[in-house]
Amino acid sequence: TWKWVVGPMFLYLCERLVRFWRSQQKVVITKVVIHPFKTIELQMMKKGFKMEVGQYIFVKCPAVSKLEWHPFTLTSAPEEDYFSIHVRIVGDWTEGLFNACGCDKQEFQEAWKLPKIAVDGPFGTASEDVFSYETVMLVGAGIGVTPFASVLKSIWYKYCHDAINLKLKKIYFYWLCRDTHAFEWFADLLQSLEAQMLERNNAEFLSYNIYLTGWDESQATHFVVHHEEEKDVITGLKQKTLYGRPNWENEFKTIAGQHPGSRIGVFLCGPESLADTLNKQSISNSEADPRGVHFIFNKENF
Questions:
Q1: Burial environment of residue 89 by CB neighbours within 10 A (0 to 12, 13 to 18, 19 or more)
Q2: Ramachandran area for residue 37 (φ above 0: left; ψ -120 to 50: alpha; else beta)
Q3: Going by fewer Cβ within 10 Å, which terminus of the chain is more open, N or C?
Q4: How far is CA 273 from CA 192, 215, 276, 280, 300, in A?
Q5: pLDDT digits (tens, 9 = 90+) for 103-131
Q6: What are phi and psi of 112, to 5 degrees?
Q7: Is 191:157 a contact under the CB 8 Å cutoff?
Q8: Edge-to-edge strand list for the sheet holding 70-73
Q9: Where are the domains of the chain?
Q10: 61-74 pLDDT, tens digit each
Q11: C-alpha separations of 55 from 50, 152, 171, 298 in Å
Q12: What does the pLDDT read at residue 6?
């Protein structure tokens, strides 16, 4: 038995030693940004840290807990000189981090008073392959939108600096959420991208649809009253928010008709039930002919 056990145990110990060594490397919090609805953004720097789009890290804050590690998706782009995460305050640990960073105080917080942070990672995800396709569908559900913040930022940087060599030509982005207000920081990112694309006369590069899956009667009345306004009453974007859930069969057929003979990457960060639906649609809408359209499904579940 020991011959079968010693190998895996050795590899496990090596992995633990590497994690311990990486967790001891110094991490500097350069900026803490407080977003609406108790969401904070931590911008950090670490020597030798290299990331790709859509990756995630494990974070430990000894001031909150000396043992707990929590995974967070990186929301910064590889082209930026820092890496960042967005943390929504929904539990004891995140509440402790919120207070440790001085976000519960009104006065300006000195940098030296910020807590020490340990970071392990980054670790890869399916989203890294987004630049391998000319056309992609990005589907984020709720908090699953965070990996695509990194993707969209990186695409914008690449587009600004070297658009000729960028293989990716078209993005279809879908965001399904019960309450967009909880992720206003992401709506701000979309507003910025929308404005910059219009300035460069390439508004067709990014097509996005925001689906609100939960609302009450008073909200519905407010939506109707302001429906004719130029910008959406919820997100402030030119693209109006849609209500309910998308008809995925129609969406796939429309995209397949617009891009015949293409390999289209479908990237999801969301629940398993949605993954099953998109996987079935990817298979049913892909043609048997190798020269026809093919949907390649990639997923991250939570």
A1: middle
A2: left
A3: N
A4: 32, 21, 5, 11, 12
A5: 777 777 677 778 888 888 788 887 778 88
A6: -70, -15
A7: no
A8: 70-73, 56-60, 118-123
A9: 25-122, 128-299
A10: 888 888 888 999 89
A11: 10, 13, 19, 14
A12: 92
Position 146 scores a pLDDT of: 82
User: Would you state the structure tokens that stand for residue 241, as one six-digit string?
Assistant: 């928010």
Neighbours of 58 (CB within 10 A): 18
Question: What is the C-alpha to C-alpha distance for residues 58 and 46, in angstroms, rounded to an integer?
Answer: 14
Structural element, H or E, at residue 39 = strand 39-46
Query: How would residue 258 be classed by pLDDT, with cut points 50, 70 and 90?
Result: confident
Q: Is it the case that residue 13 has pLDDT exceeding 90?
A: yes
7, two tokens: 């190998």
- CATH superfamily membership of 25-122: Translation factors (2.40.30.10)
CA 173 to chain centre: 12
User: Candidates 2.30.30.90, 3.40.50.80, 3.40.50.1820, 1.10.260.40; correct CATH number of 128-299?
Assistant: 3.40.50.80
* pLDDT the model gives residue 5: 92
- C-beta neighbour count of 118 within 10 angstroms: 20
